[in-house]
Each structure stands twice: as C-alpha cells, then as structure tokens.
Amino acid sequence: MEIYATIGGQNPNTDHYDFRSLESIRGGLYVSNTAAGSDMTSFKAPRLATVGSGGLKITQNEEITRVTLGALKTIEGDLSVTENVALQSLDVSALASVGGALAISMPGAAARVIAPCAAESSGWIASVVSDQTERLNSAIDVAKTFYCVETKCTCGGSDDWNCYPSDLVAYSSDYLCDDVYDESTGQIAADVAIENLSNLQNMYFDSVKTICGGLRVTNNPQLWEIRLNSLESVGKAIYVTNNYNDDPLFSGVTGYGVTGYVSQCVSGAPISYAVDQWYRWDSIFNVSSLFYQNNDDMMNTEQCFVPPMPPMPPRPPTPPGPARAAIESSIIDFVLKFFMNTSQRYKIENYVLY
Question: Do 66 and 107 belong together in one domain?
Fold first, then answer.
C-alpha cells in the first residue's frame, strides 16, 4: 500500500482512507513525499498488527508530525523512518519482530520514539531485529526513546472553559495521550485526570461510553457541570470531588453547586453500575444535583433525588461456633493453671461458664 506525492492544497486530508480498521498488510506500507499544504500532519493505523516482506517505509514527508502504530507487532521486511523534517512522535510500542534492518532518524530536539517495554533491558535493535547481519545495518538516531510509558490524559483544548474527549492531551511530559479517544465506539483508552484547572466550567463527556483506566476530576474551582450521560464502564476508580460547591445543600439552587449527568438514575450512580466492585472502595462521586439524561432523547431529563454515594462495604462475618468455643476453652484453661485449690477451681469454672 502506497501513500505518496500528495500535492499542497489538492489533498485536504487523509481521513477518507480510514486506516482505523486496517489490521494486516501482506506486502509493504509506504508513506512518502507528502507535501506541505496537503494537511497530512499525522498517520495512524491503531489496529495494524502485521506488515509483510515489503516492510514499512515512512520517508520524505514535509508535515507529518506524528505516526501512531501502537498495535504493530511484526514487520517481515525493513523498518525505515527517515527524512521527515517535522516528525516529533513515533509510536511502535508493541513491536516485537523486524525481519530486515531497522533505521530510524528523527532530527527534532524534542522528537521521541515510544518503544516496546520488553526491549528496555537488552536494547531496542537487539530485541526486535532477529537477523544478526541486519542488526549491523540498523541504527536509531532520535533525541528520546521511551519504554513502558503510561497513558494518562487531561483537558488541554484551546477553550479553557469546556472539556471534550477530543481535547485530551498528555497529563505531563512523563505520559502519553495519543489517539486515545475512539469516537465510533465512545471509548477512551487511558487514565483521565482532570484536576487543578482554574478556568474549567463544563465537562462534556456525553458521548463517552467506556474509560479503560480511571477517572479523576477534582480541585477545579469553577467546574459546575459534569456530563457522563452515556458512561457504562470505568476500568478503575471514579474520583470526583472538591469542585465548584459540590455540597448537596446547594442542590436545586440556581447558580450554585455541581450538576452531574449519568446514564442510570439509581442509588450510588454512576459508581454502582460503572465501577467494578474491587475499585468501589476508592471511588467517590460528589455533586450537588444529579440528573439522568438519555442521549437519544436530550429532552428526557430526570432528576435523581438521592445523592450518589458509594455502597457501604459488607460487615465482617461473625466467627463460627466451633471457633468461639475453642477460644472460650483456652481462656478457661489458662485461668485454671493459676489456681490449685479444687474449691477455687469450681468457683471459677462456674463464674466463667455461667
């Protein structure tokens, strides 16, 4: 498959190629000579797992800044990523085998490669290039190579007041947040931590159904609206608290408190239906008012009058009868050792037992 020689202004973008479903290429994949002005600023194939003997070549592209191939495991031929003047990020974090040579050159001072976690100890070339001769022909020239990098996102759009799933950016330079939101499925494949944002007022996650990691929304002093009205599942804990006046005393008072929107109007929402039992101990969802809203019918809004609280943990079970009898017996024997007189022993036994 070849993508090359795009002309500035005549190929507005590559969205119509839709590489999201691409899983395997028998021959080779070549992305080269895309021009400035073509708006081809990134290339991503998030499900591509194998490339054949033709290898993978990404070269001489003028505006591509990011290449995301996070599921790619096997390349039977060469891997060559060179002469891309704007390229800042290359994600091949699952790559396990390259049949040919590996050549990567990214000149930018902030350029980075996201490499396989398993390659950290032995080195990337030694880990993935199987042929000894091809290893000698392999080279990596890049400012930073990251291994085992966690994916954690926060809000970072140009609009400081509103946050949408498409606005998510890396929480800090220690984390990744590339292409984590799949609009077609409503899934965010990352931890989400939205905290300490002084201007944020609205969190519009209406379309989000699944968050693979945890959700943390806290210490946002002006955040008064949190929309999770499609949310079905969170992989870890939900921690929502200490935002704009989340005290239930302000429920229903116009201009005060935090309003939350959930997909089910049930006790403990959304923790009770979206969080696995194991993570409920660490979960909290503090809002002033809670509403149910059906995404298919935005006019159908119903207030949930019970503030959402995590379910109480179960009470520890009472020790079984035989264990209690054994404990009582050991106490009696211990006391009796200190008394040798028969009458005293009789009195103690009657005192303890009756």
Answer: yes
